[in-house]
Q: What sequence folds into this?
């Protein structure tokens, strides 16, 4: 099975695109792949539960449901530190799911770790 690094900067401005990284990550994890998600830019706002709870992509389950499915499947979710701070995402927002705070160095580490990289 492959190690897959997923990167997304889609946020609340486009719920359908924002949800793609989670739906695809869940499908890959269900198929037995090890998956990591790196959220940056506007994608970092998805770390705030109140935002996830309000996003309903066209043709897909609610973003909050897809996020939780990824967590349940063991998908690692990393949130860019500079991006989240600039958008007011607190440590409390990151609590409740197995996340790590990302940096340029951890982005590079994720890319080097991966067999495949998908940017959504």
A:
């Amino acid at each position: 099975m492959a190690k897959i690094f997923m990167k997304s900067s889609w946020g609340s401005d486009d719920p359908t695109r924002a949800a793609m990284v989670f739906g695809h990550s869940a499908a890959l994890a269900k198929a037995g792949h090890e998956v990591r998600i790196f959220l940056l830019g506007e994608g970092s706002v998805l770390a705030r539960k109140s935002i996830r709870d309000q996003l309903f992509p066209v043709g897909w389950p609610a973003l909050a449901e897809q996020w939780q499915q990824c967590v349940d499947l063991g998908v690692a979710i990393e949130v860019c530190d500079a991006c989240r701070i600039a958008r007011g995402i607190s440590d409390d927002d990151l609590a409740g799911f197995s996340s790590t705070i990302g940096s340029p160095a951890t982005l590079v580490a994720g890319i080097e770790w991966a067999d495949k990289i998908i940017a959504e």
Q: What stands out?
A: The chain has six helices and five strands. Strands lie at 3-8, 34-39, 76-80, 99-102, 116-119.
